Amino acid sequence: MSAAVPEPAVFTLSRGSYGLGFNITGGTDQPHLPNDDGIFVTKIRDSASAAVDGRLKEGDKILGVNGQTLINLTHKEAVEIFLGAGETVELQVWHGSERYLINDYSMKLQSKSSPNGFKKLLVLAGFILLGSITLYYAKKRTA
Prior knowledge:
By secondary structure, the chain is α+β, with helices and mostly antiparallel strands.
């Protein structure tokens, strides 16, 4: 992709009474994305530390915890790092990485597919759109 990868954000969260308040997925044993086996945030739990703080978002990739890298770890190894991280946790995060990586993967797939196949897909999408618009106005006229 043409867009540059941004510098990771580094910030701290306190566990609080509800914990850090987010779920993760990924790892070398169960990649979240086909082109990246990193650790990604899948859910921010309401009222917990991450939600109150507001800097961590669903789709962010967590690169490190308290100076320990999460790159090339299994999911279980990453969870163990979080569990042993203490009350105050420093996170190194790539904001918006999931969206970036999905777009990057899509671009690579499109460049590998035949131009003819992509053109056929566009024509099909155009017909579907045209049919949907026609159906919408036909129903609207009869109503």
